[in-house]
Amino acid sequence: MLIDYLLFALASFLFGYFLGKRLGREEGREEGKALAPLLLREQSYSQGYCALCRSARLPSPER
After folding, report:
1. pTM above 0.90, yes or no
2. Radius of gyration of the chain (CA)
3. Residue 20 lies in a domain
4. Distance from the first to the final alpha carbon of the chain
């Protein structure tokens, strides 16, 4: 009887662990897909070139 409870608890724990790991991985991929273009645009802006055509950005007057 005790063995049945322990096996059920272990199976429940493992199921929850793997389900949470999978859902977390999917959420991380979605967040990465949304954030990557913004990071690339920020990087190209700070380095002074266009991310699409790699041409140099014209200097703008500082305010």
Report:
1. no
2. 24
3. yes
4. 77
In a domain, 61, yes or no: no
> Three-state secondary structure along the chain?
CHHHHHHHHHHHHHHHHHHHHHHHHHHHHHHHHHHHHHHHHHHHHHHCECCCCCCECCCCCCC
**pLDDT per residue as tens digits for the range 22-61:** 999 999 999 999 999 899 888 888 888 777 777 776 666 6
| List of residues 6+ apart from 50 with CB closer than 8 A | 44, 56, 57
CB 33 within 8 A of CB 40: no
- Residue 24's domain comprises 1-36
> Looking at the domain assignment, is residue 58 inside a domain?
no
Domain count, the chain: 1
